[in-house]
Amino acid sequence: MIHLEEIRKSYFMGKNALEILKGVSLDIHKNEYVALMGPSGSGKSTLMNILGCLDTPTGGKYVLNGQDVSKMDDNSLAEVRNKTIGFVFQQFNLLPRLTALENVALPLVYAGISKKIRQEKALHVLDMVNLTQRSHHKPNELSGGQSQRVAIARALVNDPALILADEPTGNLDTKTSYEIMSIFGDIHSRGNTVVLVTHEEDIANHSKRIVRLRDGIIESDRPTERMSNAVHS
Ligand code: ADP
Ligand code: MG
């Protein structure tokens, strides 16, 4: 599903170029569940934004579902993004004036889908994250965990094959983090490909494969140890 070949990313500030990704090669198959780890500043978010077609690399090749997306223009990239990818952020990024249901249905408004179908689909994904009873609440009436579940439902509403989550539990306490991870487990079980960033080993151990980034290169890439899985399952 994901094929990265020597991906490089530099940020340019005036005359200076700062290279953040220094040749990242990585393959992720359909229905894998991968945790991306690494110290702060190692380039995890930069890589996730490229994976999510929110940004393009300055070098190398990214093939997503057989399509070379590394040199696509913004419009084509947005199309790929809307069809294929659901993105979850550390900050929940919900619109404060909209209810949970309306927040979840928003991507479908942009896709031009009728109100009736939007409601049905939004309620369906809210049910997947066990939040139907909160569908008419606004973000300020929801806890952090509930807000993140709304954000996950919103990421799922287009039925994307690939779910990307950048530190989705970064703002949550331990118990709530495990509830959120159990939802990602469900999403993976239903056949989605899941890639998530975390700096917590306990969280990463919910995945099946751990890729570690350091200073813009992959330092290690191995299956999650079964022992550590057993602790939290
Ligand atoms: P991580 O998510 O692993 O903490 P990031 O990918 O966010 O790391 O950032 C890696 C490095 O790139 C950091 O040093 C950060 O300051 C720098 N960086 C990130 N985004 C930009 C940007 N838009 N412009 C300039 N530098 C950036
Ligand atoms: Mg980051």
Automatic annotation (TrEMBL):
Keywords: ATP-binding, Nucleotide-binding, Translocase, Transport. Residues 2-233 form the ABC transporter domain. It comes from the Bacteria. The keyword Cell inner membrane does not apply. The keyword rRNA processing does not apply. InterPro entries: AAA+_ATPase, ABC_transporter-like_ATP-bd, ABC_transporter-like_CS, MacB-like_ATP-bd, P-loop_NTPase. GO terms for molecular function: ATP binding. PROSITE patterns: ABC_TRANSPORTER_1, ABC_TRANSPORTER_2. It holds the Pfam family ABC_tran. Belongs to the ABC transporter superfamily. This is ABC transporter ATP-binding protein. It comes from Terrimonas ginsenosidimutans.
